[in-house]
Amino acid sequence: MSLLYHFSEDPNIQAFVPRLHPSHPSLPPAVWAIDEAHGPMYYFPRDCPRIAFRLKEDTSDEDKAYFLDQTQAEMVIAVESGWYAAIRNTVLYRYTFAAESFSCWDKGAGYYRTHPGVSAVYPLKIEPMGDLFSRLCEANVELRLTPSLTPLREFLLPRTLQFSMIRMRNARP
Predict the structure, then answer these.
(1) What is the pLDDT of residue 21?
(2) I want to staple 139 with a disulfide (CB 3.0 to 4.6 A). Which of 28, 40, 158, 173 is the partner?
(3) Is 54:75 a contact under the CB 8 Å cutoff?
(4) Where are the domains of the chain?
């Protein structure tokens, strides 16, 4: 059975009901989930801005050398240093779903959304994540702390890496 995940600071969600996505208001309501390989992008407090990047099939040799030759990590995630204490102190829960109610929306980012007509999704399991920094290390993620994500955002946009920019509305200017 394929599994998908959702991460939340709320340990008491019994059913996930489709809703509009604030970044994609033209899409019909859905429940969103992430695959295991991309799950570490969500090992953070919900509102924490972050940028995750990794190789993709057509990443240029120049971008690979500049961004990833100096690491053995599967993924690099940059976070603003002002969020350190919140990451350290957040209690996060992983909700596990069977994948049957979902279809892939973005393979490169690992995003899935429920099929049209699904009225609710019920978790198979809910478990606390524990120390988020330890979980990131276990997932072979390189974590980078920076005063502001804005310069990295501007630098990454024209590059050939797979990247996800999450909650950037909360990033420092």
Answers:
(1) 87
(2) 40
(3) yes
(4) 3-170
Return the sign of the alpha-carbon dihedral for residues 152, 157, 159, 162: positive
Q: How far apart are CA 34 and CA 4, in angstroms?
A: 6
> What does the alpha-carbon distance between residue 108 and residue 41 come to, in Å, rounded to a whole number?
13
Q: What are the C-alpha distances in Å from 13 to residues 29, 111, 130, 134?
A: 18, 20, 18, 25
Q: Name the residue with tokens 């109610």.
A: 101
| Rounded distance between C-alpha atoms, residue 173 and residue 167, angstroms | 13
Query: How confident is residue 170, by pLDDT bands cut at 50, 70 and 90?
Result: very high
Which residue shows structure tokens 């991460």?
A: 7
pLDDT in tens, 134-168: 999 999 999 999 999 999 999 999 999 999 999 99
Tokens standing for 138? 């276990």
The H helix count followed by the E strand count for the chain is 4, 10
Instruction: Write down the residue that tokens 């033209």 correspond to.
Output: 26
Decide if 90 contacts 44 (C-beta within 8 A): yes
Largest interatomic CA distance in the chain = 47
pTM score, whole prediction? 0.93
